[in-house]
Design a protein that fits this description.
The chain has about 300 residues and is α/β, with parallel strands linked by helices. About 45% of the residues lie in helices and about 10% in strands.
Length: about 300
């Protein structure tokens, strides 16, 4: 096999199932060595064995993405096994608990932000130096969501975390270009995964004391709605095929659901209207001809 991925190595977090596993197989089909990291040891072992049985080169590593030391261990293991690291796929993520502003526990917000935001930061911080080291270039692929492009009622923590991932990627895109490292952010709508069951791997440090937990009926109602939405989604294998396609064409934003274009278009229209209002403002309108300051 001869392509830009063949013989190179990808580290993928949250790779035991769902989007992570689908991406692992899709990239393995392109000839990549795959390093699968996940917090679920049993599922990771099973998924790793399944890919090896298909003839793919796979290394599995325990990985809690909120633990930076474990990220360092994964990079060391990947380098020892395959020599170099060329790609990091920051896929691991959790959905949190749907609910009103006043109903969401602080521990849940911390869990979502630590996994979905700090986990992405840690992955980049651990892997990018290894990618830079060999000078061959590579990829940073961050998995966000359409929720990062649009706010949704009762999902504040999740939307905020995914919006952060979009912004981080936009920053890193420019920063990494001189090193021939391509940064992309994946923003799918609903995909058939188990993200609505992400509480199954919730770490003890984010546990909520019994007296602080929100009403169980509210939790169940939110979980049911999330489950129905996820089950209506596209197969993870379709998403993975789209990702490979978009990486080849060097897309920064990777979309899987073109029907959502109208949603982002509405947002951009509202933003543009707000700028028109500022231009007409007697307070700040005079700034329209000032130079744009960038770093």
């Amino acid at each position: 096999m001869s392509n830009e991925f063949s013989g190179k190595t990808a580290i993928i977090s949250g790779a035991a199932g769902g989007i992570g596993l689908a991406l692992a197989e899709a990239l393995a089909q392109q000839g990549m060595n795959i390093v699968m990291g996940d917090i679920d040891a049993a599922a990771l072992a099973e998924s790793g064995d399944a890919l090896r049985a298909k003839g793919y080169k796979v290394l599995t590593c325990a990985l809690d993405v909120t633990n930076y030391a474990q990220w360092e261990d994964v990079v060391s293991s990947a380098t020892a096994e395959f020599g170099k690291v060329h790609m990091v796929v920051n896929n691991a993520g959790v959905g949190g608990t749907p609910g009103k502003i006043e109903d969401t526990e602080h521990e849940t917000w911390q869990w979502v932000m630590d996994v979905n935001v700090m986990g992405v930061l840690y992955g980049a911080q651990a892997c990018v130096p290894a990618i830079k080291a060999h000078g061959e270039g590579g990829w940073v692929l961050n998995v966000a969501s359409m929720a990062g492009m649009m706010g949704m009622p009762y999902a504040g923590a999740y939307c905020a975390s995914k919006a952060a991932v979009v912004s981080m990627t936009e920053s890193w895109f420019a920063e990494l270009q001189p090193h021939n490292i391509h940064a992309s952010v994946l923003c799918p709508a609903f995909v058939k995964t188990r993200i609505h069951e992400s509480y199954r791997n919730r770490q003890q440090k984010y546990a909520v004391a019994a007296e602080k937990r929100i009403d169980k009926e509210k939790l169940q109602a939110g979980a049911k709605a999330a489950s129905m939405a996820v089950e209506s989604g596209i197969p993870a294998s379709m998403l993975a095929e789209r990702v490979v396609e978009a990486l080849v064409s060097k897309q920064m934003y990777i979309y899987t659901h073109p029907n959502y274009r109208k949603v982002t278009a509405g947002r951009f229209k509202a933003i543009d209207k707000a700028f028109v209002d500022s231009e007409q403002s007697p307070t700040v309108g005079h700034l329209i001809n000032d130079d744009i300051v960038t770093f």
